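Give me the fold.
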Amino acid sequence: MSVINISSHQPQESDKYFLDCNILMYTFYPNGGYATDLVYDYSVLITKIINARSQIIIREYPKDCVNLQTDVR
């Protein structure tokens, strides 16, 4: 596994990406109050990954995010 520069990286179809919960929360959780530039950079990267038809591996399900949104106890 390697670290990439998300601003300049160009995904290929054969690539596999391991995304943890934090990246998903930066991108999809509207109440996180994350820095706009961080959210934008990850959104662009995820869009590139999807468009390249690369494989995405998600480390863990963001249960805390769901609990906050749905108030599940």
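Residues 16-70 form one domain.
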